[in-house]
Amino acid sequence: PAPPVAAAPATPTAPVAPVAPAAVGPRALPTLPEGPAGARFEAATTGLASKRPNFTQQARSTVFLDAATGDLAVRDRVVRLDLGTRTPGEILDAVLATAPGTERIYITTGAPWHDGAERYSTLKDAVAAWLNTPSERWTTAVGSGRDKLAGHFVHQRQPVGRYAPAAAPDSGTTEIRSMGEWFDPDGADVVTCRQAFTLLWQALRRHWDDAVLMGSPSQTGRDLWSRTVPTTGKWAGGYPVLSEELRGLLHATGGQGRTELILPPRVPDRLPALVEYDRTFAYAKHLWKSPVGTPRRITAQAFAAMTEQEQTKALMSCSHWNVRVTVPPGWNHVGLLPAPVTGDRAWIYPSEPGATFTTWAGGAEVHLALSNHIAPWRIEVLDGLLFEDGKPLDEWGKRLKSAWADLTSLSRAHADERQRTAAYLASRAVRSVLLFGLGGFAQRPRLVSGTTPVGEALPAGVEILGQDETVVTWQRQAGFSRDPYAHPEWAAYVWSGARAALLDMKYRQGKEVIGHAGALHAKPGTVVYFGTDGIALTERQPWPYRGEPGDYLLKGHLTGPVEHPTTQEQYLTLRGLGRAELTHTGADQ
User: Fold this and answer.
1) What Å distances lie between residue 93 and 57, 152, 525, CA to CA?
2) Considering its fold, how many domains does the chain have in total?
3) Is the N or the C terminus of the chain less surrounded, counting Cβ atoms within 10 Å?
4) Is the C-alpha dihedral spanning 346, 347, 350, 355 positive or negative?
């Protein structure tokens, strides 16, 4: 950091200068230490493993509420409620009076937590204030046991409010949640949303006889996965959870989706068109193989001593590598490997010839950089972690893909429009179960939120989110928990494979490769944007679409010329126009 600079005393009339944003620069990533400390990166946490549960989840009584109209879907009827000023207490009073015993309320539209948001400096402050609106009959549910002080979950758009009767705070809890956790209702009414949940449950029950829809897709995904843990074979006793040191390394070095807006002069100032492709149910394609057990460290010397065939096999196996990367001379296409930087983006993808950086990346990405069809990049392996190849996610993924395929087919073939819409929303919910279930394995350091009455001592190390006359809402980092389902190695491996497939995806017929898709198979200077599981270009591509997970679906086409977007917000606006134009003209894939 630069040395501090003494500032001149301010005069009463001097304007206050805005704080300049922190400069973006290289960010150092952790490395593997030598000696006994390094051994912890090849170890598991003692006495902690992912085991098959010996109990069945209990279903919660659930209703669906349109907070804009007051329509409530409860069982097989719709009731119009008076929600008053739409505070949590008034919503709970109205719903529980009509549907006693309700344990979960999904708000399908209306977002009451945004009421009066203009009075607050941030949307998060507004949501926190709404969640903690005082009520004579309701109080914040603080849970019990491990969930003590769980309280509300403060999120700008998908918060979770947990409430208990003020007269019996240790009794049952009622949650208020957002439908957006599962899917965007996109104007669907409460009956359609409830039917989507019914179809989702039915589709999952065909593959899990004990399937239960929990509060969020992440919880549901993890619970369904736990019921696929093998009962025979090597992993019948459960999958070991890696050491806290190794989980911390994977958390710091295993980024998620690639988000990058490519700016002129690498692309034209005026785009001839903006064409969007989205990989259908993308992560489902990358679950067939995942790392299991504890890894074996591969030092630079050990890697150099391998034959070329052994090196290729190591990179094609489930692995995570610390590498020094150099972009080759004459390179004129997109970047291939993530480089760590400070700032909001966290990762960039250098593509300038001669650029050199040090990073961590999965074996799929490193192998692609070495073997791509345009020009091999220079890769120096500094260290690596080589896992045993296994299939811990394969059965889970196959069942979810089958449920998704059933619902997708129903959404196209059902004679009733409401049922078609409900089936489509249910298929989106399956996608969320897989997407957020996978993210749940990443097990980031926990962020715990809670509330404390005004005047009482706050827990140590908290960040205050908001305060009213009665309670202070806070959050704090709680580090890594002894979570038996913490497997960041699985999430990191799938994310790495998905990032590689944005660049080069193979179409196979049996074992034979019959075609390619991805950014490296488009002309240099035509790729405008990467967005996790999709890309935008300046021209259409001849990539076949078979409706299978991972295939590139033409999602939008905005006819040019189009001024190049300079921010992500501008790009998203243009993307919306492109999707609307394609819908109007009809997709021609």
Assistant:
1) 27, 18, 58
2) 2
3) N
4) positive
